[in-house]
Amino acid sequence: MTNDNSQSVAILGAGAWGTALANLAAANGHQVRVWSRWGEETLEAVLEDAQIILSAISMKGVRDVAAQVKSLPVSPETIFVTATKGLEPETTCTPSQIWQSAFPDNAVVVLSGPNLSKEIEMELPAATVVASNIFTAAQAVQLVFSSNRFRVYTNPDPVGVELGGTLKNVIAIAAGVCDGLQLGTNAKAGLVTRGLTEMVRIGNFWGAKTETFYGLSGLGDLLATCNSPLSRNYQVGYQLAAGKTLEEVLSHLQGTAEGVNTCRVLMQRARQQNIPVPITEQVDRLLQGKITPQQALDELMLRDIKPEYHFEDGN
Ligand SMILES: NC(=O)C1=CN([C@@H]2O[C@H](COP(=O)(O)OP(=O)(O)OC[C@H]3O[C@@H](n4cnc5c(N)ncnc54)[C@H](O)[C@@H]3O)[C@@H](O)[C@H]2O)C=CC1
Ligand SMILES: O=C(CO)COP(=O)(O)O
Fold first, then answer.
1. pLDDT tens, 228-281?
2. Which fold has domain 162-301?
3. ipTM for the whole complex
4. CATH code of the region 8-156
5. Closest ligand by atom to 217 CA
6. Where are the beta strands (DSSP E) in 272-315?
7. Is there an atom of ligand 1 within 6 Å of 83 CB?
8. Pocket lining: 233 vs ligand 2, CB cutoff 6 Å
């Protein structure tokens, strides 16, 4: 396909998600180059004249790759896009914070939504969100990826969009446990809905807007990952419920389940800041092998009874 507005796009990370995004941009007629740490092309060659640099590196590699990019010439006009869903253990930074601190003069856009890469590779329809403090940058990225099979919305709340995609991974592990234990549809609906409340609570604390969590990058991604065996995070929970150890599960898992590390980081930060995160807390104890899936369920069901919401008018 030819494209009069063809952009030069560098994709960093040739895993499942980087490859799917590269294919979407290439199908729209953009010039796409993909860099992988195992590939033949150098980072310098892939970045040359890039108008958009998109990172789909898993969380553990983001800071290192950002430092490598920083050592190379990058125009201040270049837009960075981050598609990673995780939190850095040492700093609790989100990926966009790492990219923005490495490139303070460049626009940074977060791309996140209900996007199971296998379905996107099968050319099934999907929607996503691109969020930035700089609206024109989000619009430019929207144009690069939008097509009749990938609907891209802009959003002005990058923190909310990024946290939605990150926090839902922990709830997806819990949802996998719920299905693995065959707890039924009512239990799953209760878990996912209270999971969303937990995500909003954390997100608000960290500066995200409530409405964003009710959109594609929050509720949307929560529904996708909590209901699909294609989700690696869901698979982790499902297999823990079958009695496997975390080590056994991770040794056979294809790709990255970011929720495992996110849960630890989130738990530490929530404790420091006194944010109640009951579901995350049980997932954390389960991942650490401190409790069984059944004990996690009992802990959640037998918490103190309380109102569903604290309304502002006191009712
Ligand atoms: N696969 C999916 O359906 C989706 C994944 N994501 C997110 O995208 C990110 C990547 O996910 P996948 O592509 O599925 O994972 P993956 O495991 O298939 O690929 C990860 C990529 O990161 C690279 N990488 C890891 N550490 C590195 C380092 N130190 N230096 C350089 N490169 C390094 C790997 O070589 C690989 O290319 C994750 O944060 C995930 O949550 C987001 C939406 C959808
Ligand atoms: O984020 C995803 C879908 O939006 C992918 O989920 P997993 O990382 O659990 O596979």
1. 999 999 999 999 999 999 999 999 999 899 999 999 999 999 999 999 999 999
2. N-(1-d-carboxylethyl)-l-norvaline Dehydrogenase; domain 2 (1.10.1040)
3. 0.99
4. 3.40.50.720
5. 2
6. none
7. yes
8. yes
